[in-house]
Amino acid sequence: MTTEKLQELTQARLAHFGEHFSDEAMTVYLKVCTANLGTVPDDIAEAAFYAALGSCRYPKQFIPDWCDAVRKIMRKNIPSNATLWLDMLSAAHEIAESYAIYANGGYAGEDRSECLNIARRRFESLPPAVKEWAGSPRGLCDMVNHNSKSELNRFVRPGFNKMLADAPICDLKAPALTQLPKKNQPAAQISDSSKSA
C-alpha cells in the first residue's frame, strides 16, 4: 500500500471514530499499518478498509479487523483449503508412482532419470507453503502413503489446515507453470494423401 493511500485511509478512520492522535501515536499507528499491510495493493487495502470500518466495534480492534478483511478478499483469488488438500494428495500419489517406475527400471526405451524429473516437477508445481510443509517429494509421499485415509483426515489434515491458516496468502498460490520442453518430432511423418509419392 502506498503512503498516500495509507494517509488517506487514516484520515477516514479518524473522522469515522472521531479520534485525534498525537504525533507519537500517529507515528506508531502508521508503522503498525505499514508492517501489517504494506505489501497489500491499494485497491484491495481500500476495499478491505471500508469493509472493516463497517463491522469494527472497537477502534483498538480496527487493525486486526482490517487485516482479516484483506485476507478474506485476497483468499478469494486462491484455491480453497479442500482444493489444496486434494491437489496435495494427488501430487503425492503421482510422485510415488514416478518413484515406483524409477525403482522398477522405468519404461522400455525411456531414461530412468526422467521419472525423477517428473516427480520433482510435480512437487515444484505445489504452492510454496505446501512444499515447505511437506519438506521434500519423498517426505510428501511418506506422509500420505504411510497413513490410511482415516489417519490422514484425523491427524495430518488438521496440521495441513493450520499451516494454510498461518501461511501468507502469497505462499498459497501455485507457481506459474513453465512451458515444458517439446520433444523432437518423430522421424516418420504422415503425408497428405493428395500428394503423389
What does this structure look like?
The chain is mainly α. The chain has 2 domains: 3-75; 81-172, no CATH class. The chain contains 9 helices and no strands. The relative contact order is 0.08. The model is unreliable at 178-193 (pLDDT under 50).
Brief write-up:
The protein is mainly α.
Q: How far apart lie the N and C ends?
A: 67 Å
* Low-confidence sequence ranges: 178-193
The overall pLDDT, averaged over residues, is 85
> Helical stretch count?
9
Overall structural domain count? 2
**Oligomer class:** single chain
List the secondary-structure elements in sequence, H or E: HHHHHHHHH
The tally of beta strands, per DSSP, is 0
Strand count, sense and closure of the main sheet?
none
Task: Specify the overall morphology.
Answer: elongated
Rg, alpha carbons: 25 Å
- Percent helix among the residues? 55-70%
